[in-house]
Amino acid sequence: MKLKKINLVLQENLSKEALVEPTILQKSTFGKIKSGQDLVLIAPKEEGKTTALIIAALQRVEAPIDDMIATRVLIVVKDKFEVERLVEEFNTLGAKMGIRVYGVHNHTDLDEDKNLMSLGNDILIGTAERLNEMFSGAGFDVNQLKMYIIDDLDQQLRNRLEPRLYRLSESIGKTQRLYLAAEYIEQMEMFIEKTMTEDAEWLDFYEEDDEE
User: What pLDDT sits at residue 211?
Assistant: First the structure.
């Protein structure tokens, strides 16, 4: 994929999956995400939000750190299916990068999740409910966290997960935040105002279609 200063192994993995030309979303957000800015991305499925998310996370942890136990990228998804799907896609696009990806959800064993987490990981993907259980029950080290991502924010807010998302946000403190949604809903305004920095940027990839 033709993106400036993209990790070469990641670029090769993308090409193997026939992901050669970036979408408008992927091209216009790549540099902004690398800069560390907080972003809200609202776009239809065909704009490639999930791939943009994966690229952003893998770029952030592209160099494995020996003996690093703490999570460096935390991703909150809506359900078990999305956890499993995203872990699989990360393993495909992150092949040969040495990145440790782990997924947790309401049907995994909590004690086993905690034990495996203690062995170390780079990217943790989970549902809001399970992540809250893990954070409240163990001394979860967030000092090395570089990025906090919420996928399908609109759906998670509709599913009344707002209190759990707030608790997670408060527990991890200051880090770059990336929120993705398929459409705008009113609940997003207050949530973003309370959890993102003042310079957070909203990018709506429906606006161009609306103007035509």
Answer: 43
